[in-house]
Design a protein that fits this description.
Length: 280
C-alpha cells in the first residue's frame, strides 16, 4: 500500500475522496485487472477498505457514467450481494470493498444464471440509462481514430449498427458484463461487482453477452435460465438471441479496437480481428 501523499502523486483524482467521506485516507493501492475502470483500493479509518471508481477521460471514451453505475448499485441493494455505495461526486464513486475470489471457469452455470435471472427481476428504484445499440456503436466508432482500422471494420460496423427485429419487448435491468471476472465467491455466496455498463435493455441481449462469456450454447443457457425466471415464449427468446449475436459481437469488436488505441495494447486487436474473421 502507498502512503496517501504518495498515492495522490500517482493518481491526482484521489484528492476528491477526503471531502466525500470527511476524512483523509491512510493509504491506497491500484487494483490489478479491470480494463476501463483503473480503480484504486483505499484504506480509511471509519469505513475500512473502499474502492475508488473515478470518472475519467477513459470513462467518456467507453461511454461509462459513474452516476448511472451508482444508481444501479443502489437499486440492487437488498436483492443480491454487490458493492454498496458509500459516497459519490463529480469526480467519481466510492463503494465498499468486497472480499472474495473470482469464480473459476468450472463454476456451475445454473448458479450463475440464477443470479442473472435475479438481476432481471429487479425493478430499479432510481433512473437507469436505456441501452441504445445504434448510439453505443456510433459512440465507439466516433472515438476510434486509426483510419486504417476504420477502413477495415467499417462494413461490419455499418451492417450491424441498426437494431435487429425482435420478439421480446421486455426492458429490464441488465449487467452487461456478467462474466467470471466480475463474480466473486465469498462466504458461500456470489457477489456481483463492476456495474459500470449496467443499463435497461432486453434480457435476451444480456443473456447473449453472458452465455458467450461463459462459453455456453444459447439453448442450454436459456434452458437453465428458465429454471429461475418465467418466459412466455422460449422459442421467440431463442430467436432473438440468435438475432442479437452478430450485433453483440460487432459491439465487442469495436470495444476491442478502442481499447487497443486507448491502452496501446495490440493484444486487443487480436481479439477484434478474430471477431472480424468470424463475421466478415
Amino acid at each position: 500500500m502507498q502512503p496517501w501523499k504518495q498515492a495522490l502523486q500517482s493518481a491526482p483524482n484521489l484528492a476528491a475522496i477526503p471531502s466525500l467521506i470527511n476524512e483523509v485516507p491512510l493509504g491506497a493501492l491500484p487494483l490489478s485487472g479491470g480494463l476501463t475502470n483503473r480503480c484504486w483500493r483505499v484504506l480509511t479509518s471509519n469505513y475500512g477498505w473502499l474502492v475508488w471508481r473515478a470518472g475519467s477521460e477513459h470513462c467518456q471514451v467507453f461511454d461509462i457514467d459513474r452516476r448511472n453505475e451508482a444508481n444501479a448499485l443502489l437499486s440492487v441493494e437488498g436483492y443480491l450481494s454487490a458493492n454498496r455505495v458509500v459516497a459519490q461526486g463529480e469526480q467519481g464513486l466510492l463503494v465498499t470493498w468486497c472480499e472474495g475470489k473470482p469464480i473459476s471457469a468450472d463454476h456451475p452455470a445454473d448458479a450463475l444464471l440464477s443470479e442473472l435471472a435475479k438481476i432481471h427481476e429487479i425493478k430499479p428504484s432510481l433512473s437507469i440509462r436505456n441501452f441504445d445499440l445504434t448510439a453505443k456503436l456510433d459512440h465507439y466508432w466516433a472515438h476510434i481514430h486509426d483510419n486504417v482500422l476504420k477502413r477495415r471494420y467499417k462494413s461490419l460496423y455499418e451492417k450491424y449498427r441498426q437494431l435487429p427485429k425482435l420478439h421480446c419487448e421486455d426492458n429490464v435491468l441488465c449487467h452487461f458484463d456478467f462474466g467470471h471476472h466480475n463474480i466473486l465467491s465469498a462466504k458461500d455466496q456470489l457477489v456481483v461487482i463492476d456495474w459500470e455498463y449496467a443499463a435497461m435493455a432486453s434480457p435476451t441481449l444480456d443473456l447473449v453477452l453472458t452465455l458467450d462469456m461463459l462459453g455456453l450454447d444459447y439453448q442450454t443457457g436459456l434452458n437453465l435460465y428458465q429454471q429461475y425466471r418465467y418466459i412466455d415464449n422460449a422459442a421467440e427468446w431463442l430467436d432473438d438471441m440468435r438475432s442479437w449475436q452478430p450485433h453483440s459481437e460487432i459491439m465487442a469488436m469495436l470495444w476491442y479496437v478502442l481499447a487497443a488505441e486507448q491502452w496501446e495494447n495490440p493484444e486487443f486487436l487480436v481479439a477484434a480481428e478474430q471477431i472480424y474473421q468470424r463475421n466478415c
